[in-house]
Structure formats: C-alpha cells, structure tokens
Amino acid sequence: MAIQWFPGHMNSARKKAAETMASIDVVIELLDARMPEASTNPLVRELRLQRQRPCLKVLNKADLADPQVTRAWIDHYNRQEGVRAVALSCRKPAEVKRLPTLCQPLAPHRSDNVKPLRMLIMGIPNVGKSTLMNVLLKRKIAKVGDEPAVTRSQQTSQLDVRHSITDMPGLMWAKIAYPSDGLMLAAGNAIGRNAMIDEEVATFLAGQLLARYPALLASRYGLPAGALAELDAVNVIERIALRRGLRMRGGAADLEKAAKVLLQDYRDGVLGRISLETPATRQLMLAGEGAQGAARAAADDRAPAHADDSRQPPGGCTTEALPRESVP
C-alpha cells in the first residue's frame, strides 16, 4: 500500500504559509539532495506560483548524495523559470552563509537598506530547515531533532539590516501520488514512524541499492560481489541479519532488526554517497505511472456496469505493485 502521512497540525501550517507568502520576496525551498523531486512539496510550488514568488532550491545533505547525480539535478532546476538551485550541507556554515547572496538576484528590487530582502524557508519535515536557521543566525533558536515534525511554529528573525528570514514548520501534502515517493521519503526519515513499516521500506531501499550501488552494498555488509546478481532485495535483508548476528529465538534471521540497520546506515551516510533518483529515472517513473493510469482508465471503460454496487469492494481499495525504476 502507498505510504501516506499528513498530521493534523499541517493544515494550520499550510494556511499560515499561504498568509506569509504574501509578505516575502523569495522562497528558500529545502530538498533532500538524495531524492530532490520526491522531497519537493507540490503545495510549496502551488503557493509560490500563486504569489509569483521566485525560488532558491537548496539541495541539502549534498554530502550524502551522489555528486554526479546532484549536478544533473542542479542543471535540471536551473533551466526552470524563476528558479535557481544550489547543493550544500546545512551543517557547513561556510556554505550556508552564501544563501542570502544567492537569493538577492531573484529579487533585485530588494537591494538596499530601505527595502530588506525577506526570505521564507520551506520544505518537508526533517530536511534540515531548523539546522539551516541556526547556522544562518549563528545561534540556536530552532529545535533540531532526528525525526520529522519537530518544528511546530513559524519563526521570523532578522539576519541583518538587509535580510530577514522566516522558518516554517515542515509541511507535507495530503496525498503522496506515487508509491516510490512515499518509500523514498520514509527511507530518508521524513515520514512519521507510525505511517511506515521498516521492513517494507528497507526492502525497497535494498532493491534500489542492488540496482544502482551494488559495490557500496557489498562493501558495507561483506557480501560477495559475485553473488549480488543472484540476490533480490529480501535476500539482502536476510544476509545483513546473518552477517550482524541478528537472529530471533529459534535461529531464524531477524528481518525487522536488519531492516532498521540498513535504514539507519543509509540515513547516517555510512553506506556511501547515494542518490535514489535522477532526472532520467524520474521521467521514466512518471511515464510509467501515466501509462498505468491510461491502462486502468481504458479497462474501466470496457468493464460492464453493475446495477448492484454492493458487490464492489468498500471504498474501492486496491493494492498496486510498485513500478521498478530503470537505471539510466
């Protein structure tokens, strides 16, 4: 089933963001460099386009992402109108302090002390917004935690006479349209724990690593490189359990604990520099979803109408297979 997570407090956060958008000049949208489009909130795009606000897309955690893939994403975003993109790590002050300078060309009318540049930080939960605020202001004003939805209220601070910055709480959207996006977000720890199953997310992640970074997987967990071609994602989780001595009573591999090991290693960056999507794989995924949607619509058109709707499953619930992304 697709992962969905939209805590109630995010409704009020969305309304507050819409109000704040009217009084700012530039949106600083934080993305996870390992999954830039999966971590792009469509509500942010909708709100800023309604107000015609330019956007600096900051691909945070760039030190954890594949640098070649990150360069492709930067090029992709820099081709978009009203958008500029930069990759950095919010934990590095020398990189963060460049942000006001990068925002300035996006709002040239705010270039003097009379009209200071007003910036708004937006993004999904746990993407690094609070860390960015603390580094920019050189003091701890925002609570930071290794879990989503730590920040619950909006904060505005004056950087200097020419710049002010507002930090919004992490904002999700009501329905994650693509199953692979939900799984990527869960792997990156942007989804609440009660909305995901570790084994399912880790199995997805293992499949991505097998397809794109098998050498890193083999190196971290001591897997024979020659045997990787014969393994599937579930086998990888089993091998991790056995390699780390994670067993249940009776000796069977403890897949739940092994799944948590893989997810934490990915989140901490100890596996190596990994990107879960590229502009090319994103395009292929969207094309595949479009084809599946067209096929479903055609099948619905051909299906005979039932006079007795009581025979249909309540709510029309279905379980669909996750499309496998192709490697460019």
Structural notes for this entry:
The chain is an alpha/beta fold and 328 residues long. Strands 3-2-1-4-6-5 form a six-stranded mixed beta sheet, with helices on both faces. The longest helix is centred in the C-terminal third of the chain and has 24 residues. The C terminus is likely disordered.
Which class do the helix and strand fractions yield? Answer: alpha/beta
What share of residues are in beta strands? 5-15%
Query: What is the number of strand segments?
Result: 6
Largest sheet: 6 strands, mixed
Question: Unreliable stretches, pLDDT < 50, 5 or more residues?
Answer: 307-328
Figure out the total of helices. 12
Q: What would the principal axes of the Cα set say about the shape? A: globular
> What helical percentage do the residues reach?
40-55%
Strand order of the largest sheet: 3-2-1-4-6-5
Secondary-structure element order, N to C? HEHEHEHHEHEEHHHHHH
Radius of gyration: 22 Å
The N- and C-terminal alpha carbons lie at a distance of 27 Å
Compact summary:
The chain is α/β, with parallel strands linked by helices. The protein has twelve helices and six strands. It has a six-stranded mixed beta sheet with strand order 3-2-1-4-6-5, with helices on both faces.
Core attributes:
single chain; 328 residues; alpha/beta; 12 helices; 6 strands
Layout of helices and strands:
Elements: H1 9-21, E1 26-32, H2 42-50, E2 55-60, H3 67-78, E3 83-87, H4 93-96, H5 99-103, E4 117-123, H6 129-137, E5 155-160, E6 163-167, H7 179-187, H8 198-212, H9 214-221, H10 233-243, H11 255-268, H12 279-302
Helix pairs in contact: 7-8, 8-9, 8-10, 8-11, 10-11
